[in-house]
Every structure is written in C-alpha cells, then in structure tokens.
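Thread: Modeling a multi-component assembly for a lab meeting

Hi all, long-time lurker, first post. My supervisor asked me to bring a structural picture of a complex we are working on to next week's group meeting, and I have zero experience with this. I have the sequence lines for every component (776 residues in total). Could someone generate the structure of the whole assembly? Inputs are pasted exactly as I received them:
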Amino acid sequence: MRDVAVIGVGCTTFGEKWGTSFRNLFVEAGGMAIEDANISGETIDALYVGNMSAGRFIDQEHIGALIADYSGLASEHTPSTRVESACCSGGLAFRQAVIAVASGMEDIVVAGGVEKMTDVDTPTSVDALAAAADREWEGFVGATFPGLYAMIATDYMNRYPLTREQLAQVAVKNHYNGARNPIAQFQHEISIDTVINSSLVADPLRLFDCSPITDGAAAVILAPLERAHEFTDTPIKVLATAQASDTIALHDRRDISTMDATVAAGDRAFKMAKLERKDIDLVEVHDCFTIAEICAIEDLGFCKKGEAGKLTEEGVTALNGKLPVNTSGGLKACGHPVGATGIKQVWEIVKQLRGEAGKRQIDGAEIGMTQNVGGTGASVAVHILGRA
Amino acid sequence: MRDVAVIGVGCTTFGEKWGTSFRNLFVEAGGMAIEDANISGETIDALYVGNMSAGRFIDQEHIGALIADYSGLASEHTPSTRVESACCSGGLAFRQAVIAVASGMEDIVVAGGVEKMTDVDTPTSVDALAAAADREWEGFVGATFPGLYAMIATDYMNRYPLTREQLAQVAVKNHYNGARNPIAQFQHEISIDTVINSSLVADPLRLFDCSPITDGAAAVILAPLERAHEFTDTPIKVLATAQASDTIALHDRRDISTMDATVAAGDRAFKMAKLERKDIDLVEVHDCFTIAEICAIEDLGFCKKGEAGKLTEEGVTALNGKLPVNTSGGLKACGHPVGATGIKQVWEIVKQLRGEAGKRQIDGAEIGMTQNVGGTGASVAVHILGRA
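Re: Modeling a multi-component assembly
Sure thing. I ran the full set together rather than chain by chain. Output:
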C-alpha cells in the first residue's frame, strides 16, 4: 500500500444554517479544501461523502452523485460514493478515501461529510437520530440517544469514581476550546454551574452534557504521500486508519461502560502506526455526550478505566494539559452535524499539526488522533495523523 | 494493486418477503456466500453493504453495524461499512470491497446488498425511490421514476427507430430468462401482447415495462486472487471495476437518451481490463425499465445508438443469442430490491462463468459484465469478471 497524505482541508462554520442548503454546505467546504490544496476540480479522481440520514432529514438519497454534480464534476464523470455509518459516517468516508489512494486506484481524492439537520422539527430530528440505534429493540420501545447514553453514564458512575463536577468539566473544557474556534456553533465559555444547573435531559445527563443539533460540512483532500509536495509545503501523513464494529444494541454489549469497538479500533490503529499512547500529542474524541469523552479517553488506552474524570478535573485534557482532548471544542461546542463530524475531527488535527489553529494552537504538536463513534459504539473509526 | 477474485456467492429468493426482516434477509444471503466459499465468519476481514434507503423503508440507518452484528461478527469487531448510491448501491459496495482487497488492507471481504421495500405502502415506497432523483428540482415538482424514464423513452423513440414491440421484447426476453432462474420474483413467461395490453403507467411505459417493488439480498465474498484456490476450485477474477457520475437531475444532461455515465464507466472498465466489446460473453444490465436496457446496450458500446431495439427483436440479446443480456431475468423478472441488485448481477455472472446457471446457462461463458445504474444515470458502476 502507498502512504497517503492530507494536502488540503476545509470546514464551514457549524450552526443552525437555515440560509444554506445541504448541497451548498458541502460545496462550500469542498471549495475551501480545493483552494487550500491549490488544485482544480478536474484534478480530483474520486469523492467519498459521509452522511448519516439525508433521506430522513431532507428526503434525499443518492448523495454521492448529488455532491459530485453540485461540485461541478458531473462533466468529468468523477466517481462519487456516499458512506453511511450513523455518527461515524465521516470517519468511514475518510477511511474509504485513504484506502482508495493507498490502493493505487486513485490519486487525488476528496473525503467529505455533511449533514443538514435543522430542516425538520426537533421530534423528527430525534427520531432520525434514533435510526442509529437498533430500531427493533431500542427505537420501537422509546429509547433515544440521550436515554441510551444516560444508561452508560449511570452504569459508569455506579462502578467508577466519577463525580458530577468532573463530568461537567468535560463540557466546560470543550466550551473553552470552542470559544477559540471560529467554526464552532457555541463560541462562549461556561462554568460547572452552567452544566449542573441546566435542564435535566435524561438523568444524569443535563442539557450541557449533550451535543446540539447542527448543520455543517467539512472536506479534506488526500494524495499519495510521494506526490503531496506538488500541492503543499505542509502535507500531513495518515499514519493509521482503523475501524471496528460492535453490537448495534447497547443491551447486547459485554460491558455498557466500555466501548469495545473503541478499544479494538484504537489497538489496531496503534499497531498499524507502530506508535504508543505516549506518542500522541492531541486527540479529537466523539463527545456526543460528556460521558462519551470520559469513556473514549479510557478505551483508547490513555488511562485506566475509571480515571478519566480525575484526569479531566486535573486539567490533563485541557488546552494547556499533557494530553489535550477536543481542542476544536468537540461535538459539544463545535456542534455535531452528524456526517461531517468525523471529517471535522481530521480538519482540526491537520490545522493543529500545521500550526494553523490560532488561539487554540498546541505548540509543537506532531502527532494527533481522531476517534469517531456511530450510535452507542457499534461503529468506531480511529485515525492517526502526523507531520510528514 | 493485487488481483481480486470472487470465491463465494449467495442470493435469497427475490419477492414480497413479508415473513423475513431486513437484517435476516442479509444474514440469509451472507450465510449462503460463506457456505459457498467454505469459510467461517472469523475469516472475514471486512463487510461492505449496499443499501439505498433503509432509513425510509424501515426507519433504520447504521446498516453496516447492524449487518455485522446480526451476522455474528460483533465479537470479532469486524469493520462493516454501508455504501449508498441509490439503485447503484450494490455495485458500489462491490467496488469498495474490490478496492479494499486490491489495496492489501483486507484479505477476505464480503460485499453484499439488501433492500426491504414491502414494509411500507406503495405511495411511501414510490416517494422513497424518488429520493434517488434530485429532490429539489425533480421530486418536489412531482417527478417519479416511471415518469422520468418515460421522458427518456419518449425522447428516444422520437429520435431513433424503436418500435413499441421491440421495447416490449425486452420484457418478454427477461421474463423468459427469469422463468429459468429459481431466485426470480416472476418465474413465468409473457408475450408482447402482455406488455402492450398492460396498464399504462407513464406513457409510453406500461406496467410490464417496469421492474417491481421487491425484497431481497445478495452477497459475494472476495479474496486476493493469489489466495483464491485455498477456498474454491472455480475462482472468478475481477478484471475491471469502474464507476462514473453525471448530473443528478435528468434535465441537466447533455442528452437524456444517452447515459454518459454508462459510456464513461464502460470505457474505463474496458480500458482497465484491456478487453474489447467482442470479448464479452454476457452482460447483466440495469433494466429498471425496458428503455433502460435499450440505452445500456448502446451506451456500453455493443452497438450504435438506435440499434438496440432491432438487436433485441432479432434475438441477439436472447439466451441463445450472440450477446445474451440479463440472463438472470434482469430487474424486470428477478425484481429490484434496490441495494441488492448490483450484487445480484455479480452473483449471476459468477454462476454463469462457473457453469452453475442451470436452465439459463450460457455454454462456455468465460467473460461477463455488469452495469448497475443509480437514479436516471447519475451513478453507474461497471464490472468485468472472468474465469481465473
């Protein structure tokens, strides 16, 4: 397999973007990435688009073709493929694009993600998201994602020493970071009191434990590493791409407080990159709920089970900590346009490794990791990127 | 890139399968393919699942994880990815699986496709299918797929010498073949009068010009060619995989009677395989409507534009003709469970090349081709397979 590098990135602002359509969101992000990579559209050999549920949010399927068309690539007949894996759709679109370049089948490939969630009302949106869980055994009996993650949080807090304040600190930290990220949906800091006094959603999770409903798109451009310097002075090498599955229903898991798919994907990624945990300078993890960040840090092997709350309280995962987690602001503060999230994570790592992350820059960052989760952990994609 | 071979295939019967759920349909097809390849589940490195719209048909997304789970692979944490490209979803799932094996990233990979369309009523189903067209410029103004293909047929018949009887002969031929295929939804022969006297759907297309609403699943197993003989005495080599896009809306095309994406994908496939049209022994094309088969034969380069009707009338594309087209019965007689169709096409070619096609066997078939279309031609996948 050939080595693969990221040569360009783009990301729209995330938020309630009522004035921009699904297709135009993607075109905006793709255009930024193309400009960043200093290429023209005809150079592109293939597109991969991560999207969870345009079928339910905007009544549209056939997303690959739609995006190729509105990106001006119909006359080139550029292959374009939609990849869906619920909230992990972006991560898997990135992975497919990496494999396509690594194989030698394609050279210049766009990996993007997009979701337009605010064209439907909230109950419809919540039901669309519930399609990421097992409809027959979870959705039909009323389980929603806040409810499922609340079960994880309850189980976790019964077994491990995690305080309400430590859990809240995840959101406080991510809002702090988001306030330094121009694309974030929420660019304001909050306090532990903000979280603890916010409305109860599903006990113990409160409003500020939850990522919001968001519109947005992100895109990155890949090339063979050997050609990367044709396009950029700062290529970022893909050191590992890993993916793992687990049972779709939470109740079928071996342990509902440990995401075994994160453990498996993380192990596979470290093995592929021939790296150890201590080599990672920063991580973007899938904090759809605060408890998810706690589990992710542990399941990726950065500390023992039960220790991530203390680590968060002590500031280890803060912007100036030893292992900054979610420097972008994460799903909590950036927002979570489902299909785009996995690509935005890569965008953030690339920005950091290039030294272009502005007020949230981690000095000297050389190796970063992303962890993108589908559902309650039935799909996980882990990527490791490094300065080339 | 490594050479890739098909080492096992499976296909459920196609039809209105009210007694079988979406997930169990896939498990049935996958189980057949696993048995055919003589492997166990733990051998499988990855799955790719083609599915158009489980989100709209059964309220379920996150299809890759669901299928891995119900295939018993959750404990192996086997990577599983859903690929969507409307009616071309199966074709692109096959292509991604081929790329994954060719790259060296994976060895044993399942490419499957599934659709469960009869859990909703017909208007809902028609609207779900309309999501393959441009919702904003086609769906919202009332265009349905029979309507769009009727426009293609009208334009074609105004410009080229195609008679009503020749068009009907496509369906007559495909029903003849389907009557010899145990998995086909319609296993009975029809006459030209059956087609011409059937209900008008969208002028000039009548009921028997249209493929039906169908439940079904198909799966094939891929391996590096160099390992194929570990599993089977009759590996089938993937000689080419090609894909092309076009505008999603029909009215934006250069020529609505020519599928430029078929032309592009066909040319790419022949170039990759280093073969000529005369080398192909049989073809499975995407006859969602009779006119689509006429266009496909021409756009793949087997005859000049305007000649496919005559070819059909003369029996060239019949089971005993010079270029048998849709020996399986095609979408018309097999039925069209959208996500499964592209994989069923590969299944048919493999069965034929192995000499296992029973009453519809083409003697001595060595090289076969598939053409799978999304929407009105915005996505096309073309594959060429040959005896290894």
